[in-house]
Amino acid sequence: MTWDELKKKGSEHYKTGEIEPIDLYRSSGMLRHFALASIIKYAFRNSNSNGPISPKDMEKIKHYSDILGFLAEEEMVPDEVDAGDWIFKH
Predict the structure, then answer these.
(1) Helix, strand, coil % in the chain, rounded to nearest 5
(2) pLDDT per position in the chain (90 positions), as tens?
(3) How many other CB atoms are there within 10 angstroms of residue 35's CB atom?
(4) Which residues, in sequence order, are CB contacts of 32 under 8 Å at separation 6+?
(5) At 76, is the secondary structure helix, strand, or coil?
(6) H or E segment at 87?
(7) Any idea where the domains of the chain sit in the sequence?
C-alpha cells in the first residue's frame, strides 16, 4: 500500500488545510509514537463498559496499525549479503 492510499483511509476533517497533520507527524519523526498512542486511545475508549469496542473505533485501530506496518516496511532494507534477507535499519 502506498502512503497516499493509506492517507485516504483517514478522517476527512483532517484534510481541509494545505498540510495534513499526519504528514507533519511523519516528516518530524513522530508518526510511530502518534500511531501507537492512537491505538491505545481507541482500544481503551470503552474500557469502562462491558461491551465490545465500537466498529468505528476498531476501524481507527486498524488504520493506525496499517500505518505502523507501512513505517516498518519503510525501515527495512535488503541485506547486502543475501538480497532475499531483510533487516531493519536500526
Answers:
(1) 55, 5, 40
(2) 888 888 888 777 666 778 888 999 999 999 999 999 999 999 888 777 777 888 899 999 999 999 999 999 888 766 555 555 555 554
(3) 22
(4) 68, 71
(5) strand
(6) strand 86-88
(7) 3-7+19-88
pLDDT of 59: 92
- CA triplet 78, 88, 42: central angle to 5 degrees? 130
CA pair distance 65, 47, nearest whole angstrom? 19
Contact criterion met (CB below 8 Å) for 71 and 32: yes
Residue 5: its H or E element: helix 3-8
Measured CA to CA, the distance from residue 56 to residue 30 in angstroms comes to 24
